[in-house]
Design goal:
Helix content: 40-55%
Distance between the termini: 35 Å
CATH topology of the largest domain: Rossmann fold
Shape: globular
Number of strands: 12
Radius of gyration: 19 Å
Number of helices: 14
Structural class: alpha/beta
């Protein structure tokens, strides 16, 4: 993979490769855009099969953070970091101190936070060597509950358009991924009387969901083809491509996972199939809204955060209306909306 070519393709400002042999640290920090402000984006710890796979992920994720912050009205840019390796084997205070010093060396251009396999305790250890972190236990804490709240609000907005009411009682939702966000989303949905179908790579988590939410388990090979009203991808990205979407038996897609469409053409395919897709970075912005209140030296107020997260409902309706007005897919409408905010400042 040609790194500079890929940076040019997505419009990145900087990509930093990080390694430390002593602790086994191998990481990539991708800073996409800082026009609106310092770049915020979590660190993902994943055992990628190849470096190319990790680079592909971090470039797409960081671009998504730029669009997410812009669409959410935040004065923040977008970035992301991925650590390559097994978190169960590599995590230690020394490991995160070394990683944190690399973040610190960027001088505030990049603020990190929680993401897949990085929790509030890990962030706290990073914060012992750099101030360029967010989502710390002492202030805003784990952003996952806010992400789940935002997805829930976006999902209700989408339902109001697709089903004529934002009440989800009796609706069937298939949730892919029961991590911190996916499980919290299930809690919201269960309270409203949703019929849940669930899948996760961890059987124990699935069993817990079956008991707590009276959910039905779905096998991985049958997940995309399961009958449901709403499909909620809450695991990793690149879930949908032009071929597998033909198996979908839902009317609406709304989840917490980032970059669930393999490329923009998939959004067009979903549009042609009359499946309403709620762009992930529009509805999963609750976490960055929460973390963003810490930067820089913000006065954190959980009530203000929740109020701003709830506005995702209205933003979702804006994107759907824009797509209808311009007769384009919701994925293209979201990009046009967010990029318009960034470019408006860039060229003003």
């Amino acid at each position: 993979m040609n790194v500079l070519q890929e940076m040019n393709k997505y419009g990145h400002e900087q990509v930093v490769f990080v390694r430390d042999e002593k602790v086994g640290l191998n990481a990539i920090i991708a800073i996409h855009n800082t026009v609106l402000g310092p770049a915020l984006g979590g660190t993902r710890f994943w055992n990628y099969a190849t470096e190319e796979e990790a680079l592909f992920d971090v470039l797409r994720l960081s671009r998504g953070m730029t669009l997410k912050s812009a669409a959410a009205g935040l004065k923040l840019g977008g970035a992301k970091a991925v650590i390559i390796g097994d978190p169960q084997k590599l995590k230690s205070r020394e490991f995160f101190h070394i990683y944190g010093k690399y973040i610190d060396s960027l001088g505030g251009k990049y603020y990190t936070a929680e993401d897949v396999n990085i929790n509030a305790t890990d962030v706290e250890m990073i914060s012992e060597v750099t101030k360029y972190v967010s989502g710390t236990p002492a202030v805003s804490g784990n952003p996952a509950p806010f992400t789940a709240r935002g997805v829930y609000m976006g999902l209700k907005a989408g339902a109001s358009v697709k089903f004529g009411t934002d009440s989800l009682k009796g609706v069937t939702v298939a949730v892919q991924g029961l991590g911190n966000v996916g499980y919290a989303l299930c809690e919201y949905l269960h309270k409203e009387g949703v019929k849940l179908k669930v899948y996760d790579i961890n059987p124990a988590t699935v069993e817990k969901a079956l008991k707590e939410f009276e959910a039905t388990a779905v096998k991985p090979e049958k997940l995309l083809a399961t009958e449901c009203d709403i499909f909620a991808p809450c695991a990793m990205g690149a879930v949908f491509n032009k071929d597998n979407v033909k198996n979908l038996k839902c009317q609406l897609i709304a989840g917490a996972a980032n970059n669930v469409l393999m490329d923009a053409s998939v959004g067009d395919t979903l549009n042609d199939m009359n499946i309403l897709y709620l762009p992930d970075y529009i509805i999963n912005a609750g976490g960055v809204i929460n973390c963003g209140m810490e930067i820089p030296n913000g006065n954190y107020d959980v009530n203000v955060v929740n109020s701003n997260v709830d506005k995702i409902y209205d933003t979702t309706l804006k994107i759907i209306a824009l797509a209808k007005e311009k007769q384009i897919s919701t994925s293209k409408a979201a990009d046009e909306y967010a990029e318009g905010i960034v470019c408006g400042l860039l060229y003003s």
